[in-house]
């Protein structure tokens, strides 16, 4: 009898069908963020200076310098990650021989990515890039008091939505377009209302045209570097906006107060907005973007999705960037952990826990929650990897070592 068969029997005794869990897991895509591969640099110019309150620390060798290198690295990561997933692309990852201003981007600048996604059976999500640009240097984009600057970013976001719509149409799978802007003040504002009125008006203009192959999402943030005192796009702002417009709300795990968790927000938000986009990340002190580990909050997030059977309304995306470790390994660790978290949720005896809860039998609820933690989760995860032709256990790390030696170390 294989270790998986033994595990299957143990779970069956708990009322959990591991085959159902494996089948459901295979249908949940994770949107893999391109920006872990090159420290959010993009391909607009060779310097690709990061700004607008975003920061990447570390200097690990082998960063992707071109779209082809980034795709090569993504292919390596995807070969180490079980399941069928999506790519999440920022607008600064365009391909063009000549400079293209952000308000002039077109689908043709992303056709290489679309074709690559088609060839690799990946869905594609998109983001306007309202940061790291001279017109974002004074800290404001869509809420700028300068009409010219505000219009520039409105036009960039409009162009991004149209491109995402084409991506969704070409790939036969709706693209999620997420709008995040860094707008805010380092110190106490004299006027909190006017920037929010301007951001609302800008968003209204951006979202005014129909995009049937695109899903709109908006992302809040508590603070950024240089916007410590005030962020225009706060949680309340976007929660209200997403409710009013009935669009998706993006919850980034690193964008809230340190003791506030997005796992707790999912069930409430979904009573009022049709869909959620998650930016699965890990906040550590001031940084919101550490590589996702299999910690309590990841388990709580993934458990909420599968226990409530809301995987069709929750788009799972990743958002971290670490330049101090091998970047292909960072993707692999983060996506494998997210999938592992989802699987652990799927292996929970949810029906039994909920029945105990309704009976007021909190003893059974707590006892089963704790017993489930040491059930043979690893055997079921290994089976998922095997069935998806993905490395079992830490074997993938050897492949990273070979890739680093043969490919990454040749990049100067
Ligand atoms: C690249 C950024 O991380 C991303 O656009 C945004 O989602 C964010 O989280 C900014 O802090
Ligand atoms: Mn984010």
From TrEMBL:
Cofactor(s) for this UniProt protein: Mn(2+)
GO MF terms, alphabetically ordered: L-rhamnose isomerase activity
Keywords, comma-separated and alphabetical: Cytoplasm, Isomerase, Manganese, Metal-binding, Rhamnose metabolism
Cofactor annotation remark: Binds 1 Mn(2+) ion per subunit.
Primary location class: cytoplasm
This protein's pathway: Carbohydrate degradation; L-rhamnose degradation; glycerone phosphate from L-rhamnose: step 1/3
Subcellular location: Cytoplasm
The keyword Manganese is assigned to this record: yes
Enzyme class, first EC level, given as a word: isomerase
EC number: 5.3.1.14
Classification via Pfam families: RhaA
Superkingdom of the organism of origin: Bacteria
Catalytic activity annotation: L-rhamnopyranose = L-rhamnulose
Binding site for Mn(2+): 255, 287, 289
Family to which this protein belongs: Belongs to the rhamnose isomerase family.
Xref: PANTHER family: L-RHAMNOSE ISOMERASE
UniProt function note: Catalyzes the interconversion of L-rhamnose and L-rhamnulose.
Protein name: L-rhamnose isomerase
Species name: Haloferula chungangensis
Encoding gene, per UniProt annotation: rhaA
